[in-house]
Structures are given as C-alpha cells and as structure tokens.
Amino acid sequence: MNHSSTANGAALAVSENRLAPGMEERTDPRAVLTARVDQLYGQMWLGILTTFAIGAIATFELWELRLRELVLFWWGLVLLITAASAGLLYAYRSAPEKEANPEQWLRWLGIAALAAGANWGFAGAVFFPSHTDEQQVFLAFILTGMTAAGIPVYAASWPIFALYAAGILAPFTYVLATFGNRLFTEIALLVPMFYAINVAIAYRLTQVFLSGYRLRHAYGRLTQDYSVLNQRLERQLVELEEARRQVEASGRKLQLFAERAPIAVLELNAQGAITEVNHAAELLFGYAGTELIGSDFRFLVRPEHHEEFGRRWTRLVDTHSSEAGLIRTTRRDGIDLVCEWTVTPLVNPEGTIIAVLAQGRDVTAQREAERVKKEFTSTLSHELRTPLTSIIGSLQLINTGIVGDVPPDVAELTVVAERNGQRLLDLINDLLDIEKIESGKLSMAPEVLAIDDVVREAMVLNKAFGERFKVRFEMGSGLPGRQVTADRKRLLQVMTNLLSNAAKFSPEGNAVEIALRDDGSSVRVAVQDRGPGIPESFRTRIFGRFAQADSTATRQKGGTGLGLAICKRLIEMMHGKIGFEDRAGGGTTFWFELPRT
Amino acid sequence: MPDRTLNRICYVEDDEDIQRIVRMSLERVGKMTVEVVGDPTMAIEAMSAFKPDLVMLDWMMPKLDGPALFRQMQAHAELKSLPVVFITAKAAQRDLDELMAMGAVGTISKPFSPKDLPDQLREIWKKLP
Description:
Chain A is an alpha+beta fold. Helix content of chain A is 63%, strand content 14%. By secondary structure, chain B is of the alpha/beta class.
C-alpha cells in the first residue's frame, strides 16, 4: 500500500464516521461549496469531450439516408451543447471572483448537465424505435454508459447527476414502455430502478466528497492556525530572549554599580547574616569579603549598640520597610566608625524577604570635622570677644568721661579706637551669623509681631547711629494692625542693617524715609535714601559676601560687607523677599516683604 | 521686686582686665559696692563672707567654670537663694537658654557696655520676685 492510498483510506474512514466533533464548526460551508463547484468544473472538460466523441460515433453509427435530417439535427444539438458547455467552462475559468457566487455557477452547471442528458434522452427516444436491433443494442449501451459515466463526473453534486440521468433515462424509459414488446416493457420497469441505484450511489459519493472537502478545509484551517501559533511562539521566544538579555545586562550593571560604588554595599539574609559584600565594604571594615560572608552583621556593630540594632532589625523584618540612620561599628583594627546606613529589604510577591541590602557611607571623618569646626568657631568667638571686651570697655569708660577728662587730641584718638573696636566686633558677629546660617544652625524664634512696632523700635535703636552721620529717620504713615510672623531679634538685625547703610550713604542733614505698604498677602517695608545710588557694576553682587561697592567707603564709614548677605538669608528664612531699586529723584530704596499673618 | 536697691555685687572672673573694667563700671557709673573674685575655687568662701545682693559669674574659667560654681552654690544653704547673672562671651542663643534653664536670673553677653552694665543689672534686679 503506498502512501497516497493510505491517506485516501484514512480520509474515507473519517468520512464514514462523520467529522470529529468540533471539526465541522471549523469548516466554512461556503468554502466547501466553492470547492465542490471547482471540482465539478474541473471535470467538466471530460464530460464535454466524452459528449462530443460519443456523439460523433453515434452520429456515424446511426447515419441513414431516410433519417438524415433528424440525425443531422441531433448532431447539431450535440455540437451546440458541447459548444455551450465549453463556453460555460471558459467563462468559469476566466471569472475573476468565482467564489462570490458558487450557487449561480452550480445552477448553470445543472442546466448544462440537464441539456446534455436530455440530448441523449432525445437520441434514445427518436432513434431507438426507428433503427435496427443491432443499433438498438448500440443505443442502449451508449445510454447506460453515458448514465454511468455521469456518476464520477457529477459525483460532487448528486442533484445535478439526478437531473442529468433523468434527462437521459426518462424519454428512453417511455419509449421502451410504449414499444409494444414484452421484453422492452420489462426493461422499462428496470430502468427506473437502475436510475434510483445510480442516484443513490451519486448521493453517497457526494457525501464522501463533502466529508473530504470538509476535512481538507478543517485541515487547512488547522495548518493556518498552527502556523499563526507557531509565528506567535517564535515571536514570544525572540521577546523572551531579548528580555533575558536585558535582565542579564541590568544585572551586570547593578553588580558593577555595587562593585565600584564608593559606598559600602552588603547583602544580608533575613536573619542578618552577610551573603555578599562589595570592595568598599571590605575597605571600610578591613575584612576580606570571604571573612565577612557567612558571619552575622552584628559582629561589626559595637556591643553597646546591639540592643538598638536588634530593635531596628526586628522592625525592618516585621514591616518590610527600609531603615535609615547612623550605626556605630568597629573596624578590624578596633577603630570606631560611624556610618550612615540605608537598609532595605527585598521582598518577593509572596511577602517573604529574599535579601536585605545595606548601604553604608562612612561619616566618621565628616562628623569629626564638624565637631572640630564647631569647637573652632566657639573658641574663636570666645577668644576674640574676651580681649575685645577689655578694649571696647576701657575705651568706652574713657570716652564717656567716667574716669575724668582727657586732652582733646587723646579723646579724638580713643573715639577712633572704640569705633574700630566696635567694627571688629561687628565683623566677628557677622561672620558667626553667616557661618551659622550656612551650616543650617541658625534657628528662628518666630512670633506674631506688629510690623509698625518693630520698625519704630529699629528707628529708636539706630537713632544714635544716624546722628553720627547727621541723618534722621522718618516714617510716613504706618500700617497699624498689620502683623507678620517673624523672629523679632533677627528682624531688628535686618532693619538695623538697612537703616545704618542708608544713614552711611545719605548726604548730611538728610532724612532716610521708611515707607510701609500693605500688598494684601504681604507687607512691604522700604528704606529710602538720597545717597549716590548703587553703581551698575555692583548691582549683581550686592547681596554676596564681602560685597562693598568701594573700599574707600568701607574705611570711611565702617561696615563688614556681610550685612546685606545676612539680611537676604534672614529674610528668606522668614519666607520673605528682599531687593532694591533706584529711587525716583535720586537715591536708593532697599525693601523687604514678609508674608502677612 | 526686692524691697531694697541693688548695691552689693560679687563678681567671679579670671581675666584681670575685665575685672578692672567691671569694677570701674559698677563702682563709678553704678555707685555699687563690688567684690571681685579672681580664683573661682575661692568664690564660695568670698561670697559667704561678703554677703552680696547679686552674684555675677563668668562662664569659662580655668579650674572651675561658671555653671560648676553655680551648682556648688546650690549646695550651700546661705548661697542657694542668691540671684546669679552669667556674663559670657558665648554668643549662641542655645547656650544662653541653657544657663537660664539652670536657674540663672539673667545673662549678659561679652562684650558689654560698661556705661550700660549697672542699668542692665538693675533691670534684672527689678524683675526679681
């Protein structure tokens, strides 16, 4: 048994048992119909050729002079039908969209088959009675042969075969029945049976064909589905591979980050045992990675901090949230380390801790530096102030005349000495302020203040200073009832700075005007002078440190060059804004705004 | 406000220059009676003998600093109730707050003005119960 016959056998076996459940749904009835029509037209040329050939032989055999016209007419019909059928076949073959209307093509084929069958039936009906016995045998043979030959040709559609066979056999049966011969009458009775058997066979064949077609379609579908599935699988495989590569790459990247990071990175398990360390961690603790891995992280923590460490570790394990803070540890050589740690648990979707990542930055040196700096600042402050207390105190006692009169020249010099001593003190105070502000150590004591009162207090405090420069302070209409939230001492410091600056730069005999304005959400305080104005080149750095437009002015008028820098920082710490602008008519206006309470 | 005026001041300070200025300020400007103690370890004895209205302590001193001396005073029944003013070159507000929390009745920053010092002390004196 060769391969193809096995396949056919299998197909038939399947057709016998109908299609497997589910497969029927997978076949499209229209597609099956189209395939059947295609099959029918595919065999049509066989029918046409057979009709033409057998028709020619029959014409030759039945040729008799007395029936010449009738035979010729019949031959004409054969030619007409074969030509029409050939035309139909040609039309079908060249039709662009035969799938669009298979029913129509089937109908046309049915008509052609009926015409062909009826033509043979006509031959039987007309020529059987008029010819000799031998010719009658010939005719009977041809008609049964043509009927039988129709089975395979029209097997794909049994109704067409039924039409075709009826066309042949119905007239012939009638002729046989009415011939008047007993034998023929008996044959006429057998012919319908023969017809019925043939149609039954054709019907059966049609069913087999149908199953075959359905199977073929289902198989085609399956193949199609399979190839789509296959493509999808391939695509997913490619995507998976790409994802794997990305994961691998980011894994390598992470590893690199950890390895090269300047901070210590340790991986711990949920019990606190070290499972992985980077190079920075080895350097930090002075142990090799192999010594660290496997041991409990607690052996690095100073014993007096074990309790606190244990508490925080329990919290991390319980809440799965990361912990950050300082942990005191000991290096291999016994030196204490203070590190800032961020400890983060890695939790899988099931809620189990798979690892704990600890990242530590050594802040020992930084903290020591901060401590030294603080100590230095404090010492500097103390050591400078103590001698200044004696200098300024002594000079003040002389200058106020408490210890008796001094010669005018000496008095002039002691005044200079006191003023410069005061300047030195201002500079120290300003430097300490800047240091405190910039290290974030300056704390504000905000309270609700009436802006009017603060401004008036500042004017009183600076009255004497103004008098030194023969300048008076004047306030226009105040803003009674307007309140701000600010640190009183620091706000007075800002006001003192602005007022003393204005006094220093105002022409003698002039007034510095203080104007208050309510801007709705904020209060604006402006200090206006009639001084020389701010030089263009100085405007951008006026709020910077040691900013002074002209060093001669410093020597003449005093000032550290830190005043405005401090003012700006203080006002900003009180959530305000500070600035300056040219005053109409000459001079400068310095202003600050504070949010209203 | 105490029923008598502020007169007797005991000042504990190791810096001789400042001692002199304070003494001159309080005696000449404030017309007060001043006992200056240069060695803080002798202070308790001196105070007990002098019986001041008010004590002024320097903060930073060798051997015994102001706060330590203050605590020693608390152990003596007759010195415990004396009002104490610290005079210090420490400028940080936090430090000054610490002294007040300890029980000082006032703080004066160095450098101070010798012209104003007596008045500053009298202000503090007036606020006492």
